[in-house]
Every structure is written in structure tokens, then in C-alpha cells.
Design a protein that fits this description.
The protein is of the alpha+beta class and 149 residues long. It has a single domain, classed as Ribosomal protein L30/S12 (60s Ribosomal Protein L30, Chain: A, 2-Layer Sandwich). Strand 4, helix 3 and strand 5 form a beta-alpha-beta unit. Helix 1 runs antiparallel to helix 5. The chain starts with a strand and ends with a helix.
């Protein structure tokens, strides 16, 4: 899903497709910038390899309600309708779980090594070898929350 734009190289005009999100939720705040999104997607890929993620609205909500969801939540910013994920940031604030939004549910699903787009992923507290990566990303999310408020 993208938007067409014309780019000229020399004398030939070529058509290039750029990835521009077609829709962004009005509740998608704090939105991660491209650098922090890449760090987030790398963390999700590493956590998926160790089987320490929950994905999907139902599974993530259940983990948070049962207090098994200690970690970091990443939500997609292009989920429609908004009502599907609107309750998750509130649950995160109640349980002191840091969260952030990224641009695309397709990128989120790909990072979680699934074939389907995923609207939300909860990265559970990683094992000792991934603790440094978790701490650095948690600091980035804290900086995003401070900047947004």
C-alpha cells in the first residue's frame, strides 16, 4: 500500500513507489520515529526467536490482566477500526507497562516472524542475554512518552 511519486534520474522519468501509510489512528501516540521503530522491530525479532512474545489483541489483553505481561508493548498505528485496540493503552497505563506505536501492522507481523499482519505485540521480559537490549529500548520508550506529554 503506497503512493506513487515521480522521480527523475538524468533525462529519463521513472516511477517509484514509496511506502506512505494510508491511515494512522488518532490515538497512535507516542509514535516511534524511524530510528526507534527499527530498534523496536529488531527487539521483536530477537524476542520471537526466544519465544518470549505475545501477539494479538486477545492474547496480549489476557497476559496483562493475569499480570503475566511484564515487558514492553508495541502497537500498530494503522489498525482500523480504532475501537479494537483502544483499551490496550489504558491497560498499559494501569499496569505500568511501557508502550509505543509504529507505522505499520505489516512490519509488526513480519518482525514477529508471522505471515499475518499483527496489530499488537507484547515483548515479555527477556532472558539475561537480551536484558541489555531490553533496557536500552525501555529508555527509548520512556523518552518518547516524556516528549509526547
Amino acid at each position: 500500500m503506497g503512493k506513487h511519486s515521480k522521480v527523475q534520474k538524468g533525462s529519463d522519468a521513472e516511477e517509484q513507489i514509496t511506502a506512505v501509510p494510508m491511515y494512522r489512528n488518532p490515538i497512535a501516540k507516542p509514535m516511534a520515529d524511524s530510528k526507534k521503530s527499527k530498534k523496536c522491530l529488531k527487539l521483536i525479532t530477537d524476542a520471537a526467536g526466544e519465544r518470549c512474545i505475545c501477539r494479538g489483541i486477545k492474547e496480549v489483553g489476557k497476559a496483562i490482566r493475569k499480570h503475566q505481561g511484564e515487558g514492553l508493548m508495541v502497537l500498530a498505528g494503522d489498525v482500523f477500526p480504532v475501537d479494537v485496540i483502544a483499551h490496550l493503552p489504558v491497560l498499559c497505563k494501569e499496569n505500568d507497562i511501557p508502550y509505543t506505536f509504529i507505522e505499520s501492522k505489516y512490519a509488526l507481523g513480519e518482525a514477529a516472524t508471522t505471515r499475518r499482519p499483527t496489530s499488537v505485540i507484547l515483548v515479555k521480559k527477556p532472558t539475561k542475554d537480551k536484558a541489555e537490549l531490553y533496557k536500552s529500548f525501555k529508555k527509548c520508550v520512556a523518552a518518547l512518552e516524556e516528549k509526547d506529554e
